[in-house]
Give the backbone structure.
Amino acid sequence: MKTAIYPGSFDPVTLGHLNIIKRAAQAFDRLIVCVMVNSRKTGSLFNPKERVELLRRVTGQLRNVEVDFSNGLLADYAREKGAHVVVKGLRAVSDYESEVQMAIINRKLYHNLDTFFIPSSEKYTYLSSTVVREMARYGADLSDFVPREIISDVEAKARGGQS
Ligand code: PNS
């Protein structure tokens, strides 16, 4: 059974993430979407438990997709799960350098771990969770950016302040 891991901050999950999840779920037998900690990011909207809950809600129909959380290293998590593939979405050239750097580091930490890049759908190349958080804080319409099942959660959280 081929297991792949799709790691990310997912604060919150966007339509761009969901597009990558659906495509990766078709390519692998089992896909674990793992909420992880990005130490370079500050100013979160949702806590990790909430991010997992939102991801579970939007992926509930995808039978080979699981959602998890880890606050450790991706390489350790992959080893623990018996996974040899990490899936990442690539939006633009600007993503490339840091993503390749992370892929190489992860492979150094666990030599059986490779990263497969999936190009973003052209509809979502501009989209990121950072942009969603910013728009939500100003009350913008989020329907083109996040799955409809979570729009009210994002709006409420943005109105209520940060977690
Ligand atoms: O959605 P993001 O913020 O671009 O995802 C980045 C993430 C969370 C996948 C990355 O920061 C990560 O892998 N964090 C876990 C710790 C780790 O293994 N870091 C890479 C080696 S230093």
